[in-house]
């Protein structure tokens, strides 16, 4: 296997992992009615945040970053192929 194919396959693997990470919040089987009401208070500002939405935001950022990295790996693989 040459380097270009290795970059392309690893990029596709990273994109697959990213899609699973972004899908994870929607696969939660144990959903409760009061999940949206779980709050966390920021001690510095005194504001309340919903923990569930903070977790989904972090997972979204991680998933998007992995998608970007996977596409960059695929682009490197295509450039090396020429």
Describe it for me?
This protein has 82 residues and is mainly alpha-helical. The protein has one domain. The chain contains two helices and two strands; from the N terminus they run αββα. It has a two-stranded antiparallel ribbon with strand order 1-2. A hairpin with a 6-residue loop joins strand 1 and strand 2. Helix 1 packs antiparallel against helix 2. The two termini are 15 Å apart. The mean pLDDT is 81.
How far apart the termini lie comes to 15 Å
Strand arrangement in the largest pleated sheet: 1-2
Quote the beta fraction.
Answer: 5-15%
Q: Any idea what the radius of gyration is?
A: 18 Å
Tell the overall outline: elongated
Low-confidence parts, pLDDT < 50 over ≥5 residues? Answer: none
Q: Would you list the SSEs in sequence order as H and E?
A: HEEH
| Tally of domains | 1
Number of strands: 2
Question: How many helices?
Answer: 2
Main sheet attributes: strand count, strand direction, barrel closure? 2 strands, antiparallel
| SS class | mainly alpha
Helix content: 55-70%
Q: Please, what is the average pLDDT? A: 81
């Amino acid at each position: 296997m040459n380097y270009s194919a290795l970059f392309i396959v690893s990029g596709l693997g990273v994109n697959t992992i990213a899609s699973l990470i972004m899908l994870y919040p929607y696969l939660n089987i144990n959903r409760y009615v009061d999940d949206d009401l779980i709050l966390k208070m920021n001690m510095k500002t005194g504001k309340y945040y919903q923990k569930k939405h903070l977790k989904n935001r972090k997972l979204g950022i991680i998933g998007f970053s992995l998608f970007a990295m996977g596409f960059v790996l695929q682009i490197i693989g295509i450039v090396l192929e020429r």
